[in-house]
Design a protein that fits this description.
The protein has eight helices and seven strands; from the N terminus they run E-H-E-H-E-H-E-H-E-H-E-H-H-H-E. By secondary structure, the chain is α/β, with parallel strands linked by helices. Helix 2 links the parallel strand 2 and strand 3.
C-alpha cells in the first residue's frame, strides 16, 4: 500500500525494536506510517500487522547506508503522502562484529562500519526530509514538521565494563551535536529537531546483553526504574511525544529515556 496514508504521517527508519514500537503506537492513534528498513521481510510483516488492525502503513526496503538505495526509498515515501509531519530516525546498529570495542583495539573496518551504520542512515533520511519539510506550508501552529533522532545513553554516560564500544559512542555523540545544530538553523523555518537517548532497551540489538546474566544484573541496578532493560514502547512513546503538537515549543533537546541510567552510580 502506497497511496492515501492517513494524517499525520510519520516516516520511521527501521522496522524492529524502537522503530516498530513507534510505528504501531502512531498507527493505533490514527496516524499514517511509512517504514524504511533494509529487511524487507520485517517491513512487510510490520505493515501487515498494522493494516490488519485497521491502521495505515506503507513501506520500502532499502540499505540506508547506500545513497542511491536510500534516495529511492525516500522517493517512495514522499510520493505516498502529500505531507510528512514527522521523521523518527532510528536505523543504526552495533559494530561489535566488525571489531568495535576499546579504541586501541578497533581496526579501521570496525570504525568505518560502525560510524557508517549509525550516521549514514541519519544523514540521508534527515537531509531529504528537511528538504521536503521546507517546501511544506506551515500548519496552524506555524510548524512545517518535526524530526527526532535516536541516539544512545552511551553518548554521554559511558559504561566501561560492559559497553566499551567507542566507535558506537562516537557516532551516537555525533548525533547529539547534529540535533543541536539542526534545531538552531531550522527553527526559523518552523521545523523542530530533537533527540532521544535510550538506555539499554529490549530490542533485537540488545540480544547479546539480554543473554548475559552479568549484563542483566548490571542493567537492573543501573536502570532501576526499569528493573532491567527499558521497554521499546517507553522509548517510542517519548519519541512520539517530541514529534507531537504537545511538544510544539521544544527543539534542540536530548531526552534521556534510560530508566535512571544517567543518574545512577551503579
Amino acid at each position: 500500500m502506497t497511496e492515501g496514508l492517513a494524517r499525520p504521517t510519520l516516516l520511521v527508519t527501521g522496522a524492529s525494536g524502537i522503530a516498530a514500537a513507534a510505528a504501531r503506537l502512531h498507527a493505533s492513534s490514527g496516524g499514517g506510517v511509512f517504514v524504511i528498513s533494509r529487511n524487507d521481510a520485517q517491513c512487510a510483516e510490520l505493515a501487515a500487522e498494522i493494516t490488519g488492525q485497521g491502521g495505515s502503513c506503507a513501506w520500502s526496503a532499502a540499505d540506508l547506508t547506500d545513497e542511491a538505495g536510500a534516495e529511492r526509498a525516500l522517493d517512495h515515501a514522499t510520493g505516498a503522502t502529500q505531507r510528512i509531519d514527522g521523521l523518527l530516525a532510528v536505523a543504526g546498529g552495533s559494530g561489535r562484529r566488525f571489531g568495535d570495542g576499546p579504541l586501541h583495539t578497533v581496526p579501521l573496518e570496525g570504525w568505518v562500519e560502525t560510524t557508517t551504520r549509525n550516521l549514514h542512515p541519519t544523514f540521508f533520511a534527515v537531509r531529504r526530509i528537511l528538504s521536503v519539510m521546507l517546501q511544506q506550508e506551515p500548519d496552524e501552529r506555524r510548524r512545517r514538521g518535526a524530526i527526532v533522532i535516536v541516539s544512545s545513553v552511551l553518548a554521554a554516560s559511558p559504561s566501561p565494563e560492559h559497553f566499551a564500544t567507542h566507535s558506537y559512542a562516537a557516532a551516537k555523540a555525533a548525533q547529539v551535536g547534529l540535533v543541536r545544530s539542526l534545531a538552531s538553523y531550522y527553527a526559523p523555518f518552523g521545523i523542530r529537531v530533537n533527540g532521544i537517548a535510550p538506555g539499554l532497551t529490549d530490542t533485537p540489538m540488545a540480544s547479546r546483553a539480554a543473554a548475559d546474566p552479568a549484563v542483566l544484573g548490571f542493567a537492573a541496578s543501573k536502570q532501576p526504574l526499569a528493573g532491567g532493560l527499558v521497554s521499546a514502547d517507553d522509548v517510542a512513546t517519548a519519541g512520539l511525544f517530541l514529534l507531537s503538537p504537545q511538544a510544539n515549543a521544544i527543539t534542540g533537546q536530548m531526552l534521556a529515556v534510560d530508566g535512571g541510567w544517567s543518574v545512577s552510580g551503579a
